[in-house]
Design a protein that fits this description.
Blueprint (H helix, E strand, L loop, with lengths): L9 E5 L1 H14 L4 E2 L1 E2 L1 H5 L3 H11 L4 E3 L5 H5 L7 E3 L6 H10 L2 E4 L2 H10 L3 E5 L17 H4 L2 E6 L12 H15 L4 E3 L3 H6 L7 E2 L22 E13 L4 E2 L5 E2 L4 E6 L16 E4 L2 E6 L7 E4 L11 E4 L3 H8 L3 H6 L6 E4 L2
Parallel strand pairs: 1-19, 2-10, 3-4, 4-5, 5-6, 6-7, 7-8, 8-9
Antiparallel strand pairs: 1-11, 11-14, 11-18, 12-13, 14-17, 15-16, 15-18, 16-17
The structure holds pyridoxal-5'-phosphate.
Length: about 350
């Protein structure tokens, strides 16, 4: 037998208590609706194996993935009847898989409705386009007999600008979603993503689909006090070096020491999702001390300034500052990108 690989010098600590608290807050803010959970893209990069059991145990009973290939990992943790696949069937094989496994496809077009019908049909969801013009059946096509033949659990639509509370697109989309509800037989209706939940009232329907805010993202000011940080990247110091005045650091020598200084080489780079936009911008922390990034981020390494953390040594761990709203402001990346970039080399583990 092959020996087990030694521990990774890069880890992602996942605060399950904060994750569960975020889901409960979003469920409470959903009022009469129940909150589900968008767990597509490996739970936004956090890791579906870490996330799904926590949400399930908190009471979540509706899970959304985008791809058919994302179903199997989720089935390890939640029943098939609680899973819906947002992209819907693109091929007859997709529809056959949905029937065999027992998950619901989200039907996004008349073509998909036909694929589902031809595969034998059964419970499904329907996505209605009310103005975002991505996936979804247009209002004009809702009277098609293919739609009338569907056995619809959730009638979905999706807001284009929910994080902008005053955007007139929101009430316009709400109105079209309500018109669709009047036209199509369904059990439950869903419109709101994380930011949509903050719009409240009529936007809530019977089910909401938060994603970002579950994982610590704050898409709008109204959610700021409700959402806790969930993921904390941590990285080991591989080497400590002493620089002299005039020594430069990293590719293209974008940082040069003005005086002697102690620096650390840590095991994170753009291959881990710590992109080059963090060059000269990122901060790590040890105890209370700030440990700034120096020079360019490399593929697998980053150099940091240990001036204010003189006790840090090789093998010690630094926390990467990654509170999502602040990290987005500094990096120029969206909070969604910051999460979904987190790479495969992180050992994902639950917080103590
Ligand atoms: C990803 C997704 C969501 C979750 O959106 P957040 O902004 O992350 O809360 C909700 N609904 C649909 C259709 C999605 O694709």
């Amino acid at each position: 037998m092959r020996p087990e690989a030694p521990a990774s010098p890069l880890r992602l600590t996942i605060d399950g208590t904060a994750l569960a608290a975020n889901w409960r807050a979003l469920d409470r803010l959903s009022g009469p609706a129940r909150a589900g959970a968008a767990v597509k893209a490996n739970a936004y990069g956090v890791g579906v194996a870490a996330v799904a059991p926590v949400l399930r145990d908190a009471g979540c009973a509706d899970f959304f993935v985008a791809h058919w290939a994302e179903v199997a990992d989720l089935l390890e943790h939640v029943p098939a009847s609680q899973i819906a696949v947002l992209h819907g069937p693109l091929t007859p094989a997709d529809a056959a898989y949905a029937r065999a496994v027992g998950v619901r496809p989200v039907i996004n077009s008349l073509h998909q409705a036909r694929l589902w019908h031809d595969a034998g049909g059964g419970a499904c969801d329907l996505m209605v386009d009310t103005g975002i013009n991505r996936l979804g059946v247009g209002l004009a096509d809702l009277s098609d007999p293919l739609i009338a033949a569907l056995e619809i659990d959730v009638l979905h639509s999706h807001l284009a600008a929910a994080e902008e509370a005053d955007n007139p697109r929101n009430p316009a989309q709400l109105e079209r979603w309500q018109a669709a509800q009047a036209q199509v037989t369904h059990r439950r209706a869903a419109l709101a993503n994380s930011a949509g939940i903050a719009l409240g009232g009529e936007y809530l329907g019977g089910l909401t689909r938060p994603g970002l805010a579950l994982y610590g993202g704050v898409p709008c000011a109204a959610l700021a006090g409700e959402i806790r940080q969930v993921v904390r990247p941590e990285v080991a110091v591989m080497q400590v070096r002493q620089l002299q005045a005039g020594d430069s650091v990293g590719y293209n020598a974008t940082f040069t020491a003005l005086a002697p200084m102690r620096v650390g080489v840590v095991s994170i780079g753009y291959a881990d999702g710590y992109l080059r936009c963090w060059s000269g911008q990122g901060v790590m922390r040890c105890g209370g001390a700030d440990v700034p990034v120096l020079g360019r981020i490399s593929m697998d390494m980053t150099v940091v300034d240990l001036t204010h953390a003189p006790a840090v040594n090789e093998g010690d761990w630094l926390e990467v500052a990654y509170a999502l709203p602040a990290a987005a402001a500094i990096s120029g990346l969206s909070q969604y990108e910051l999460l979904t970039l987190l790479g495969r080399r992180f050992a994902r583990r639950a917080a103590a």
